[in-house]
Amino acid sequence: MPPNKDLLGKNIIFINSGGKKKKFTLEKAKSLGLNIILVNQKLDTNKKIITYFIEADTYNHKEVIEKLKLFQKNNPEIKFDGAITFWEDDVPLLAKVCEEFKLPGNSYETAIRTRNKHEMRKRLAETNLGSPLFQMIKTKNDLKKGMEEIGFPAVMKPAWGADSEFVILVNNEEEAKSTLDYLQKNCNEKFNPIFKYNNGTFLYEEYMDGMEISLECFSQYGIPHVIGINEKQPIKPPYFIEYGDIAPARLEDSIEAEAIKLAESALIALGVQNSLAHIEIKMTSTGTKIVEVGSRMGGDDIYTNVKNVWDTDMVEIGIRIACGVTTNYKNTQAKGCVICRYFIPNHSGIITNIEGIKEAQQIKNVLQLIITKNVGDAILVPPEGFENAGWAVVKGRTYQEAETLMNRVISKIEINVTRFHKDSSLGKTTRQSSLSSASILREQIIKASKIEKLRIVDKNKIKKLHIGIVANSTITIYSENAKKFFTGENIKNILQVKGYNVSLFDVGESALPIEKIQRANLDFVMNLCEAIYNSPLLKSHSAALFDMLQLPYTGSNPGTLSLSLDKIKVKKILEYHDIPTPDWDYVESMDDKISDELEYPLIVKPANSDNFFGIDNQSVVTNEKELKKQLRIIIEDFKRPALIEEYIEGTEIDVSLIGNEEDVEVLPLIRSTFDKVQKNHWHIYSSDLWDGKNKYILDTIKVEKPAKINKKLETLISEMALDVYNIFDCHDYGKIEFRVDKEGNPYVIELNPNPPLETDNFIAISAKLAGYSYEDLIEKILWMAIQRYKDKPPFYHLQF
Are residues 143 and 223 in the same domain? Predict the structure, then answer.
């Protein structure tokens, strides 16, 4: 039988893509001829690799099971042959999927034992298998008990965790107390979603000295196998950050045999029946003891190490186990030596320079060179975080040859990390104060990195940014039943087709997606918010939220957005700058006096509204009786102040602008004429025109694209529009509406700093007239906004 023919055409569920780090697992499955059904929160891998995609939150187990059942119902011809994950957080979910669909795998009980460190410790203690002394802690009293029974030095860590996060050595009571406070404050879902399962549970356990090794294993049909052993590179307490690996581990035969026996016994005791496994063991002065057992493949360099030293493909083995196909594994002797080294800076901060990668890649026998960060990214090392900037893997015939080669690679690579601010005391303070301020400084560094990334990004790399589109899916504008659809989904699709990394967030949801936005790790936001809780009055708050989160965004700042909705203040500012606007007055109650100088006809509007709210054909009044009727509607029914303007008979001109400061482009003007509108309807755009019964009136308004006006008037209106745009500090794009009377005098009547970006909106039409496709307009707005954040101090955009 040809190799892998027994896997050809099988349907395997992949739970979580694992992002770029785990892309090779999907590629391997594809090369084996499998049909991949990817379950992930978003499609973040090449569509050509996978066969089917199911969008689901892998931290919501019920949702995943339900969506898999629905997929099966809609595709009865597709049989699930297996399920697998290479993402540690999803081991319990994998067990549930395997149990639900009767697929080869481990039980849910085993999954919990190999993810929850307390459950693992209990089971190993029950079977007397290399477990150190331990105590579960939730409270200060628990900690006190642990200190009394176990003593010092000790290790404290969360019951649920990954990648050595928050594993800390403590040497005395003071350190233990401050560490518990640090863990309780920082082990939360915001740092890592896995901590939603932690429930404030931590372990206090005996510190184990000696060499640490990891055994790369698998079990099939309940029979354990150890493929190879890696030696962990020395780590510097008090944090147990992995510095690197050496494969094979430099062990005496008797000690190696002891470690293998313990690992195999642990897999049996924990109930690992069908999966890959990664076991960490300490060779202590009192014998071999288990640090951790995971029922999944080891991360980062482990796959490469095993493949190149023991000539064994762990991904293929894992897939065979998942599909119930015998692995036919044959034990092989180690050949050569592989060394992995992580790039870990001395302090947290923002990456300002990465050099030497290409030169290092050209060195012979460099097996892997992974850079997980970009210039402008935040990188967090203890106590703020537990990250690295990537790793290198090299191979030599001997340990000495591999070490020499690794030193050559390291000498070529330079990764500069600038502290968050020059006065930071990080690394200079005492251990206790450093822990206590860790979460605050972590937030500051991450937020600052968003701006820093924009400062160094060029136009060719903008597609690598994670862009969030914040928009309304629907909003009631003109009446209770009228719904207007906005463009978030369309723009998301356009940008994705062009290769952008985009996520969409709907501010029309009953619960605002603030937490989703925070979790998404966005680099930039396209702010298309038109209303919050169906109120345009709140849309400026979206920009304010992004400022508080230090998320750069398109469009105007919250001050401009809020001010533009206050028509009274807009009028006062226009008058102050001698910009023509219809004569006006305002009232806040029915008792307020209206200026005698105003001449009928007048138009009455809510003084703080948007999208034609409160404006219909009755808004134009010709006498005092009609005026008072409209004022009652606005003041008493709508509970808003009223703006009264002299009605300007004539045409309406919309001026769209794009750009910032000295580089603003006035797009071709668009004019609306009302000559064909029936006599009983005033020559205005009003909310009632979008009602089905009046749409025929809207159709009689002639829209000139571009406006057919003389050059002198076009120049005058364009210059007035530029003045208004800059006076109100509009950013990136905006629209200003004018009325032109029969004598050719222009008047500013409306400012919209963040106009809707639908394809049929005037700004998109004007852009097309100027030679921009719709796609070009969206990209130009993005790029102009990014340029605006370059070389500017924080919050510069908030200054008027």
Answer: yes
